[in-house]
Amino acid sequence: MNKHLISFGHGYSAAALAKRLLPQGWHISGTTRSPETAEKLRAEGINPLIFGSPEIEEALASATHLLTSVAPDRDGDPVLRQYRAAIAAAPLEWAGYLSTTGVYGDHQGGWVDETTPLTPSTERGRARVKAEAEWQEIPNLPLHIFRLAGIYGPGRGPFEKVRNGTARRIIKEGQVFSRTHVDDIAQVLEASINHPNQGAAYNVCDDDPAPPEDVLSHAALLLGLPPPPEMAYDDAEMTPMARSFYAESKRVRNDRIKSELGVRLIHRDYRSGLASILALGND
Question: pLDDT tens digits for 171-182?
Answer without folding.
Answer: 999 999 999 999
